[in-house]
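Deliverable D2.4 — example input (structure tokens):
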């Protein structure tokens, strides 16, 4: 009598095939369950906690042999920095909806204040970072820098913008206008020199921004080599972008002119 089991299937496999399969609905329900320890804490704001689902259970790389880098977690130093950064510019936002005062700490909501000073290197960007705010703020500061350079005196050594010719009298081909006398001031080199990372970093340090910015240097014992100037300049842009989104372009442009460009020597 022939066996019911094919000759090419072993006894163990045949026993496994005869075992009833697990209900697929039960499997899906089990895989979708989340333990209470993996849920974010509702008592902590988004900027103050790492989403548990984004954290690895084990660290794959060894910890670097360098001093532990700690960032500011207190609200008062952050508010004091915003007060110094905004200064009297906050008076331009007086009367706007949702604002209780004209100090720098009153210009932005709590979450935005922390987001604007958080670099993407901090906690691998899992608590949010300020790249989008910095993108908008850089556009605003670039525009205000161009306007300030156009209003500055033309350098004596600036090349002439007049057209020269050898076969015809120059007077027929020269076009002059008062608005073009300082056109040479807004060359890409002039703008990049004005808004260099080192110059913006000095302005940021004068407001105490280096004490509250949240970032993770590659080498905690060598901040200069880790790019602290670039991080501070990036954060300056993000604060201008945050002011533009929350309080409008007029407040952001005034902050760019009075709190950044004037300390750099531009009016």
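Example output (designed residues):
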């Amino acid at each position: 009598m022939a066996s019911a089991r094919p000759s090419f299937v072993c006894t163990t496999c045949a026993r496994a095939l005869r075992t009833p399969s697990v209900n697929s609905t039960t499997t899906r329900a089990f895989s979708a369950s989340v333990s209470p320890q993996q849920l974010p804490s509702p008592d902590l704001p988004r900027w103050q906690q790492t989403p548990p689902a984004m954290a690895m259970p084990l660290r794959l790389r060894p910890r670097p042999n360098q001093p532990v880098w700690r960032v500011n977690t207190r609200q008062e130093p952050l508010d004091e920095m915003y007060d110094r950064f905004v200064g009297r510019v906050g008076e331009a936002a007086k009367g706007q909806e949702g604002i209780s005062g004209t100090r720098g700490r009153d210009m932005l909501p709590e979450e935005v204040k922390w987001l604007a000073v958080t670099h993407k290197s901090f906690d691998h960007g899992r608590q949010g970072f300020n790249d989008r705010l910095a993108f908008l703020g850089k556009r605003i500061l670039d525009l205000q820098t161009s306007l300030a350079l156009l209003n500055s005196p033309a350098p004596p050594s600036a090349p002439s913008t007049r057209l020269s010719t050898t076969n015809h009298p120059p007077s027929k081909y020269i076009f002059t206008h008062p608005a073009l006398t300082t056109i040479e001031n807004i060359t890409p080199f002039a703008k990049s020199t004005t808004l260099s990372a080192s110059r913006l970093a000095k302005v940021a340090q004068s407001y105490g921004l280096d004490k509250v910015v949240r970032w993770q240097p590659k080498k905690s014992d060598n901040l200069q080599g880790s790019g602290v100037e670039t991080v501070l300049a990036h954060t300056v842009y993000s604060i201008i972008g945050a002011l533009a989104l929350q309080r409008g372009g007029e407040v952001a442009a005034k902050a760019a002119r009075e709190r950044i460009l004037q300390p750099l020597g531009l009016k």
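The radius of gyration is 30 Å.
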